[in-house]
Amino acid sequence: MAGPLTFTLLCGLLAVTLAETTLRPPAVLSLGREVIKERLTQELKDHDAVNILQQLPLLSTIREKPAGGIPILGNLVNSILNHIIWLKVTSANILQLLVQPSDEGQGLAVKIPLDMVAGLNTPLVKTIVEMHMQTEVQAIITVNASERGHTHLVLEDCSNSHGSLRISLLQKLSFLVNSLANKVMSLLVPALPKLVKTQLCPVIKEAFEDMHVDLLSLVRAPISLGSNHLEFDPLSPAIKGNVIQLKLGAKLVNSQGNVTKWFKESAVSLTVPALDNTPFSLTVRQDVVNAAVAALLPQEELVVLLDYVLPELARQLKSSIKVISTKAADQLGPTQMVKILTQETPDLLLDQGTAKVAQLIVLEVFATNEAHRPFFTLGIEASSEAQFYTRDDRLMLNFNEISSDRIHLMNSGIGLFNPELLKNVTTEILNSVLLPNQNGKLRPGISIPMVKALGFEEASSFLTKDSLVITPASQ
């Protein structure tokens, strides 16, 4: 009987083993910086960020707190500002965003260049005095943990990039007007970054939050699998280099909306390839892929009147049975019947660049369609090469020729015999009956909604040793 010390030692070893086990999610969605950049750019347009820039209260801001934050007391500053009728942004543009790893290496830095022209109206000159203003806003995308321990993406530290502000006159006018404009520009140098932080940064944060919600929504879009569908659920995000990775849970849901199978983090291996220059990738663990194929190909029974449908195979079968039993062969009538039962759903085995499907099949031969007992029952361990490819945004799968790897005599009413004698003809029957039936069910393919949701028309796919990877097709 084990003592307390032994029990304590075993518990300690078990705890260490569990701690060292790396749990891997059922799927991982990797998003490159191009996807983040394009979706955030669109969200900024949807939030009318340019209009926010055009509405910046430049004049009231510099009147409240001129250079140095000191209230207007000096007669000189007062007289200068009294010569300004209005001062506002007349045109604004948000230039191409830049997304790159942050300097601290803990997140992604989003840099948003701003290009504006401000107009200054003064009675000292009949034309509008125009100033060119260039600056850059920077914010950091990072992973934040809530009080409950849940992690999510957030946008932090939104502010004007240090040293990015440039203000210059677009045209030279009189000495007096130039002096006035230069003074206004000096007042704008501290005022503009504050306006960006108070007026634009909240809009940028809202745009990011909406982008985040949209990404989670497209992740949750159900993937149709015949009468069933596959759903992904976000588990937790991570930032690796310039890539955002969303770890995903998964579940199979039937036509009544009931979950028939859950997929959670486990020790099952999952190889997530480097994104490199690919905009995004969806890496799906082998057991999830296997379950998706099984949902498309449930267990079924096929019944064939062989002499009517495949007369040549009917003659081959009769000749093969005649070697075993002449009496049995003579009993085969024009309505001889073959039943094929897929005993279990296909088992998909992935490897680097290739896939194989294994099946357990029961095959029975009846003398006529009215016979209640079969001549014999065979158990067949079959396999096929499985070919994944894509068409538009659909993942396609096709089984190649079936091979009978092992054949077993499960029951016989015509005496014991070596089932290998029937291997060739039964394999031909499987390839002529079962294979077209299964490929017919696979032919529509599996639509991957997130491909078009992320802005791409066509998908591509490849296999690793333990996963299926879906990416946008090369443009």
TrEMBL record:
<keyword id="KW-0732">Signal</keyword>
<dbReference type="Pfam" id="PF01273">
    <property type="entry name" value="LBP_BPI_CETP"/>
</dbReference>
<dbReference type="InterPro" id="IPR021193">
    <property type="entry name" value="Bpifb1"/>
</dbReference>
<feature type="domain" description="Lipid-binding serum glycoprotein N-terminal">
    <location>
        <begin position="36"/>
        <end position="257"/>
    </location>
</feature>
<dbReference type="InterPro" id="IPR017943">
    <property type="entry name" value="Bactericidal_perm-incr_a/b_dom"/>
</dbReference>
<dbReference type="Pfam" id="PF02886">
    <property type="entry name" value="LBP_BPI_CETP_C"/>
</dbReference>
<feature type="signal peptide">
    <location>
        <begin position="1"/>
        <end position="19"/>
    </location>
</feature>
<protein>
    <recommendedName>
        <fullName>Lipid-binding serum glycoprotein N-terminal domain-containing protein</fullName>
    </recommendedName>
</protein>
<dbReference type="InterPro" id="IPR001124">
    <property type="entry name" value="Lipid-bd_serum_glycop_C"/>
</dbReference>
<dbReference type="InterPro" id="IPR017942">
    <property type="entry name" value="Lipid-bd_serum_glycop_N"/>
</dbReference>
